[in-house]
Every structure is written in C-alpha cells, then in structure tokens.
Amino acid sequence: MEIISCSSDDNTKIDNSDLVGKWNWTNTDGGIAFHIHETPELTGKIIHLSLMENYTYSITENGNEISNGFYELIIKKSIYSGELERFIQFPENHQYTGIVMKGIIKTFENIRLDISDNNHDGIGSGFVRIE
Predict the structure, then answer these.
(1) For burial by CB atoms within 10 Å, which of 7, 63, 95, 117 has the most?
(2) How far does CA 2 lie from the centroid of its chain?
(3) What's the pLDDT at 92?
(4) Which tens digit of pLDDT belongs to each residue from 3-16?
(5) 19 Ramachandran zone, left/alpha/beta (phi>0; psi -120 to 50)
(6) With 50 as the cut, is the pLDDT of residue 68 above it?
C-alpha cells in the first residue's frame, strides 16, 4: 500500500505581480487626530522601496541601502473595507525607515502603492512607481 501525502511546505504564495518594482516614497500620514504628515520635502529623505518577484525587498534612503530581506504577504480583514485584503509584513528587526512596514497593501492603476497599518488612528505610507 502506497501512502501519498502533501507537504505543508507547498503553501501557495499570494500574488505579488502588481507590487514588483521600484517605488518612490511620497508621504506618511495619519496617527491620532491625523497629526503625522511626513514627506521627502519635510524630512530630507528620498526613500525607495524595491519589491522583487521572489518576495525579497530593499529599502534605500538617499541612495544608501538601510534595510533588505524577505517580505511576507498574508490575507487579513481590512478595517478600512471590511474585506479580506493583502497584508504585507517586513522583518521585525529592521530599523525605522519612516514608512509603514506592516499593513494592508494596495496598488492603484499600477502606478501608486499604499501601505496602511490597519489600525484605528493608524498611519499609512504612499508611493509612486519609478520602475
């Protein structure tokens, strides 16, 4: 008698094809009473987020890489829409970059990307595609 089993390592990855590319940070806003408003102009930081097909990422600030590794996509219920949506998580051990590193991730017309932390009085970061 032959026993065939499926490995639990065969987890199907959540599609990231619309996320792959190089993104330029435009703003981080939100917080209690919407008190956080950061932009490249205000902070002097030019931040690029590169998301690769193989679920790796790189973040540069003013041309210097400040964080890299693997990101994970899971499905979570969004507090914004009430629907199940993609949620991106970067490693916990990264240094603060000025952008949201864990949250609901969406693209708009393949040129804009938003990551919102999925918290009431939370914050979100916006990006535009540069590659």
Answers:
(1) 117
(2) 44
(3) 77
(4) 554 544 446 789 99
(5) alpha
(6) yes
| CA–CA separation, 115 and 93 (whole Å) | 19
Residue 58 to residue 79: CA distance in whole angstroms: 28
Contacts within 8 Å (CB) and 24+ apart, 64-70:
66/95, 66/97, 67/94, 67/95, 67/97, 69/94
Residue linked to tokens 């041309």: 63
Q: Which DSSP letter does residue 95 get?
A: P
Residues 114, 78: contact at Cβ < 8 Å?
no
Which token pair is 30? 């939100």
102, with CB counted inside 10 A (0-12, 13-18, 19+), is middle
How crowded is residue 15: how many other Cβ atoms within 10 Å of its Cβ? 9
Question: Are 115 and 100 a contacting pair, CB within 8 Å?
Answer: yes
Contact (CB, 8 A) for 9 and 107: no
Contacts of 106 (CB under 8 A, 6+ apart): 85, 86, 113, 114, 116
